[in-house]
What does this fold into?
Amino acid sequence: MMLFRPPGVYRPQADTSLLTRALLRSLSRAGAPPGARVLELGTGTGAVALAAARAGCQVVAVDASSQAVLAARVNARMRGLPVRVLRGDMFAPVAGEQFDVIVANPPYVAGEIDPESVRGRARAWEAGPDGRVLLDRICAQAPRHLSPSGTLLVVHSALNGVAATLVGLRRAGMRASVVARHREPFGPVMRRRADVLRARGLLVDGQRHEDLVVVRADRMEEEAGDERDQWAA
Ligand SMILES: C[S@@+](CC[C@H](N)C(=O)[O-])C[C@H]1O[C@@H](n2cnc3c(N)ncnc32)[C@H](O)[C@@H]1O
It folds into this structure.
């Protein structure tokens, strides 16, 4: 069945499928909680959230765009899948809630436009000077929305700095690593922006591809807590 996608809503792309595959792999691992509570940040058409619901998870999907919220609700209803779709800024609509898995394919294209002020289709990709405005918020805030053994899966371009994501997550008390990587030719947005990014040293001459990465981070506050207790004793 085709996805309903009103104008301005992100068309699922290579980053969407890379993240979906990583999520399904993670859900099928031994020890993954059956009927896991899954949160998707920035759901767009809901493609990733639908895959989680199909796998038997209890799914909440959030997006800042009213058109995306409409699309995700319609797509879930057309398939008879129970996805709770909420409109709002990142974690705000789920304040105080915890999840076993959080997934995100956030905006991550570097540019001069302030992502907080952008509206329309560009909201799917505009992510500030180094493309990390939303990524850094996710790294910092995910731990408090994860259950004690919860997992974050976030996809972005290696151009945003994989080390920055790993360091940000480790600083937030998570065990983090790259679990998937895929080389993709630039899409239309990156082709238009390549000259600007090259001038700022973010691309090498002639580069027309980017590596997409999925970073997985597991909460380890229990272990950290145990260690702290040991030292305190
Ligand atoms: C790259 S698209 C990904 C869409 C979908 N998850 C997919 O993979 O096909 C990023 C999504 O994040 C949403 N978004 C942007 N800023 C947001 C924010 N502050 N809070 C929640 N969603 C946001 C956009 O509207 C867009 O739907």
Notes: Residues 45 and 71 are 5 Å apart (CA to CA). The helical segments are 14-28, 47-54, 66-78, 133-141, 162-171, 188-199, 221-232.
